[in-house]
Design a protein that fits this description.
Blueprint lengths: L12 E2 L3 E2 L1 H45 L10 H8 L1
Antiparallel strand pairs: 1-2
């Protein structure tokens, strides 16, 4: 077992220099990759949200143009259920 203390992120301490630069560089590169993936994911989700908002607006217009529902052809029980 090493007597060098470790950090919460798994960096190995080295005498006189703090942490091993290659470990820190690797960790920073991993964090940067995760950040870039998250930014790309946000961009995809934002675009999808805009598409869905446009579709929702289009469908709301379609529904607004529909004639009111007519339940006259249904039986009395079905009319009561739909009136709830």
């Amino acid at each position: 077992m090493s007597s060098a203390p470790g950090s919460a992120y798994g960096f190995v301490g080295v005498r006189g220099r703090g942490y091993r630069p290659e470990q820190v560089d690797r960790f920073v590169a991993e964090l940067s990759a995760e950040r870039d993936a998250a930014v790309a994911g946000v961009a995809r989700l934002t675009a999808r949200a805009e598409e869905l908002a446009a579709e929702s607006a289009r469908l709301a217009e379609v529904v607004a143009r529909l004639a009111p529902a007519d339940y006259a052809s249904l039986g009395e029980r079905a009319q009561r259920i739909l009136a709830l």
